[in-house]
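Take a look at my tokenised protein here and describe the backbone shape.
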Amino acid sequence: MLSSAFDHAALIVQGGGQKGAFSAGVLDSFMDADFDPFDLYLGTSSGALNIAPFVSKQRGYALDFILNYTTSERFFHLPRFVRKQQPMDLDWAFNFIHTGEFPLDIEKGRGNLGKGKQALACLTRTDTLQDHYYPIFAEDWFNILKATCAIPVLYYNDIEFDGHTWVDGGVSATIPVMEAYRRGFKQLVVIQMTPLSGEVVLKREDRFERLRRNFEESLLNYQRRESKQGASLSLASSTENSEPTTPRSSLLDQIEKKVDALLAEKKRQETFLQEQTRDWGEYLEDLLRVMVAKARQFDFDASNAKMLEMLIAHYDNHAQIEAFLDKPPEEANIFRIAPMRPLKSSSLMSERDDLLEDYQHGKLVAMEFLKQHVS
């Protein structure tokens, strides 16, 4: 029997790329327990991708997509991205959503929603950088889901419909909880990717530090993965009769130099992180200077003002969301489902074992939530 706290409830799922393995575990456990009291489903990026199979009751779908498609080098390969040879290939990955061995059942999802229920994906309109919400199971569902995942720096193609161009909903609302509240929902179940302890009151300088740390960890993860494969691949290439290519060791050297340069830059920037009396604008200026420096290191075009504007919007909006979650209106009842420790996976380039561990962690957290709130 459900607690009355879940009458007229909304489910909100944060985006986070491959970290969505955690929310996939939570939602699969909800399906196992037949727990679905929700009248509104809101998701951003991978959060929307996880909501879709939850509504269509396709257990394991979200994990399958993360494990088998987002980990492929065809989806994202750092060296080719750095050399501007290949962006994140959303088009390739999304083709499998409706043509793969395990397609998303759009018709079943529509039928399961029933009267008065909505499942919406958060998208960002590029000209205003405002959040907008589109039905996940609409006729144009393919473009809607692709748009909510289209990270501006990583995905180059324009996604256009309804007279506008759209990008990742995370630019405007990483956790679209405030939209659920604006729509009149007071019982809010939020699945987030960060632990509650210490994260609720993250200082601004800590958020900037985390941004750099995540970027460094992504490069280091790639370096470790390439090191494991280096010996066998170099042996295989020596036996081929094809024209010689750039040695893999040379590529690893280049990556290592970039990581060293990034760490050196981090050390130079530590002084401003220790200053806790400066306001948001000053911290933002420092962050932009760091981003410009990174762009030069990796031979990116640092002159794209729109990208910097999106970065500003992302941090500004996320700060408002954090404040809302930390101190919600009195009439709002927020249930926050969060990992008990930092997730093993990253937004991109995660190891499969880490993804599976985060998925299982999500299942355990969900079971504990159900024990506390559902009888």
The radius of gyration is 21 Å. Strands lie at 9-13, 38-44, 118-125, 131-135, 159-161, 164-168, 187-191, 333-337. DSSP finds 13 helices and eight strands in the chain. The longest strand covers residues 118-125.
